[in-house]
Design a protein that fits this description.
This protein is mainly alpha-helical. The chain is built from 6 helices and no strands.
Length: 141
């Protein structure tokens, strides 16, 4: 049998502190979901360091557990554009006011999130550029 190479210290720390395992309740899901978000933000700001390699490896092990929990508790069905917008806002820690350039005033954003108004093609174009996603994600499935 061959030797195992050195373990990345960042990976070892993350595994010890937040062991990848089945997520059994919403509290655990919240912790791991927030951890994934924080690690992704860290990768976006410093994706070339040695610690980034450990973060990528850890995320590749952890994210299947998060996905399994989410698929069990919130099976994908028809997703509405406003749900995608709400999710992206939460993941990026944005307020309704933060989207003034893309959508308009806070009350208008609130109306969209509450299903009282629909996103326009121009708003969808701006949002897809801001979040780096396909415009298709904002159309109701």
């Amino acid at each position: 049998m061959g030797q195992v190479g050195p373990v990345n210290p960042t990976y070892a720390f993350l595994v010890a502190r937040y062991p990848p395992r089945e997520i059994v309740n919403r509290r655990e899901h919240h912790i791991y979901r927030d951890l994934v978000s924080a690690l992704l933000r860290a990768l976006n700001s410093d994706g070339r360091s040695k610690s980034a390699d450990g973060v990528r490896r850890y995320l590749s092990v952890l994210t299947p557990f998060v996905e399994r929990f989410e698929n069990r508790h919130w099976p994908s069905g028809k997703t509405k554009g406003r749900e995608v917008l709400s999710f992206l806002m939460e993941q990026n820690e944005l307020t309704q006011e933060s989207l003034a350039k893309e959508i308009g005033s806070q009350p208008y954003v609130s109306d969209i999130l509450n299903g009282k108004k629909k996103l326009t093609a121009e708003q969808i174009r701006k949002l897809s550029r801001r979040f780096g996603v396909s415009p298709a994600v904002f159309f109701d499935a």
